[in-house]
Amino acid sequence: MIGVVAATAGGRTAAATLQAAWPDEVRLLTDQKAADALREAWRTCDAVVSFLAVGATVRVLAPLLGHKTTDPAVVCVDESMTFAVAVLGGHHGANLLAHRLTGVLGCTPVVTTASEASNVTPLDSYGADLGFTVHDPGLLAHVGAAVLSGEPVRLEGADGWPLPPLPPNVSPDAPPGGHRILVTDQAAYDCMCHEGRFDGALVYRPKSLVVGVGSARGVPAAEVTALVDSVLAEGELAPESVRYLATADLKADEEGILQAARERGWEVVTHPADALASVAVPNPSDVVRAEVGTPSVAEAAALLTAGPGARLVVEKRKSAHATAAVARLRPRGRLAIVGLGPGARDLLTPRAVAVLQRASVIVGLDQYVEQVRDLIRPGARVLASGLGQEEERARTAVSEAAAGHAVALIGSGDAGIYAMASPALEFAGDDIDVEGVPGVTAAVAAANLLGAPLGHDHAYISLSDLHTPWEVIERRVTAAAEGDFTVCFYNPRSRARDWQLPKALSVLAAHRPPSTPVGYVRNAGRPDESVTLTTLADVDPARVDMFTVVVVGSSRSRTVAGRFVTPRGYRWA
User: Is residue 548 a contact partner of residue 434, using CB atoms and an 8 Å limit?
Assistant: First the structure.
């Protein structure tokens, strides 16, 4: 919840605007003294928007400050609505909130965190979306300053985790003895590790462990908790790295297990007995098989939940009424398939920007990579290639994700429309996580420049016969013509393919009047954008190339005040 505080008429008007825009997120605190409202918002909300001066806001909130990981994010907006200043909790919501406010109030975000200014992944959110936690937050500023200053920082234990990029000075090859970042589920801080001790290193806890639990009916929660703690301690494992508590379906209502999980904030996962029985374990039990239908619960549940390639870190241990074992899961790589839109930066979605900055490997056509080069964070590997290498790019992106990296496969428009999503997903297995990031398509960008040509049913058809026989394409054009669809032609004409567009237009002309509007837009959303609106009788295919989208209206489409319109067909009362 976002608490909004204002003291003036202008501030209250802006606050009401925010509430109208974000009705499920905003709580107005504008009917009491500003200082009291700020304190209440701080106490009860996740974030605060203060339509007060930064100084006045800070004076009220300063005595309440705790730690940035737990304090609400605070953004101040000036009286003229010119600036949204991220004041507190920049990496914990304030920077993002300042940017969000621009979309509602039109103000300019003011962000002063050094990592954002340098386009460097902030350490306090490094791996946070994977569930990583920082063991000693007090070291963040110290090591973060070294990262931003270009000092050598040794990175250990991060292999296989789809983590964001860090600058080149952060490397497994950095010399020992200096600043260190460790990714580890080990709990023994006084033990030897590599060439030094854990002491003084910035330690991240990955969610890498699964604790399998079996029990008798009525097992006390305290016994489960004590056994789990004992098993983790035996393996010198950090409780913060436990991702799941796993057991058999028959134990899904076992209150002792559920309560133990609730107390630690661990998610409970259950499996059918027959699935557990299929897992090879080192310590099967005939007694358990007779009672539950599987020779193992704790070990099998841990391994099955952890997934292919998992191994037991601690084998089954027993208490009076429970058993427990620990498996270490294998991290899954990430593949984000990102649509960059038609080219204009303001048509690139905020989600696409965030995913690009999150990726440690960028794969794409060379010209698209250059289009977003400034958004790629230092330390990310860029794998660019030229036209005609689509299959290679798709295979490369999937391979990099399978190796455990966070990969962004980029393309123009929307990646799912005549772009890279389809070939990539043909190669992708179930061993990686895949995210599709929508983009503004060329057809949508072109349609909005022309007017409203897609106001009713429409079809997209590619005229490239490099991989699809012309006979198939012509059947589709004929079907669209007979169905009276507005048609968007992609890949309409190139130097080597100059007859397909005239042929397709002639098919449509057999089902459309000569006055049917035709629009073609070249390089929609780019500096050399051009827009032409003509008719089916007068269209000149020679003015069209591969950078052009051609839109041909249905029999009901018409030109209204110089704009291409396909009526929606509403009956107005």
Answer: no
